[in-house]
Amino acid sequence: MARPRSAGYDDQRELILARAAHLFAQRGYPGTSMNEVAEACGMSKASLYHYFRDKDDLLVSIADGHVARLEALVDQVLAAHPPGEGRARALIERFVEEYADAQNAHRVLTDDVRFLPEATREAILARERRVVDGFAQTIAELKPALGKDGLSKPLAMLLFGMINWMFTWLRPDGALTHADMGPIVADLFFGGVGAVKAPGKAKPRAAAQRGAKRITEKET
User: Does the pLDDT at position 215 exceed 50?
Assistant: First the structure.
């Protein structure tokens, strides 16, 4: 008979994932032991195994959970916003804000998924590809010619290049927050450097229209 779960089981599991993600991000997956994870969580190693069967199980839960949240976020934005610049901006801003509380998980996904068995790694990468496809679809909707020319996905990857590595330089206690950076990334993507404005400042209507026109105008 299976051992019943305690009332705080899910909360404890999330705490373990957060502490493990921090350790993996700081020390690397190979350099972190289950003993160290247990110590960071204030529990015995035996108790830790009640929640996760081994270190691979921890890594899968961190990486797959992170990508699953991103995938769900794409689905939510696509369902809530019609095709257009508003949808693309919502995707960008929501992703940047999501990364504010997922920096350790994202570093683990970037650096440590390679240590997983091939089938498990491919399942996680397939989720990542669906996230990229959601962005590429949104870009192609703005300018269909980009999709026909095979450029919507490369543009999506360039956009992710701005977003994904933000954790390497954006300090949690710095002058700019993730909430500040979301609109900045969107402005830069749509209108270039000239369209970027400081946080809290309203964008002039003419500049906003020019930024939208650059990416949405039809080819002649």
Answer: no
Q: What sign for the dihedral angle of Cα 22, 24, 28, 34?
A: positive
**pTM for the structure as a whole:** 0.82
Looking at the predicted structure, is the pLDDT value of residue 110 above 80?
Answer: yes
pLDDT higher than 80, residue 41? yes
- Report the alpha-carbon distance of residue 7 to residue 22 in Å, rounded: 25
Using an 8 Å Cβ cutoff, are 152 and 139 in contact?
yes
- Count of alpha carbons within 13 angstroms of residue 93, beta-carbon side: 13
CATH superfamily, with its number, for domain 11-167+177-216: Tetracycline Repressor, domain 2 (1.10.357.10)
Neighbours of 51 (CB within 10 A): 20
Where do we find the tokens 């019609």?
A: 82
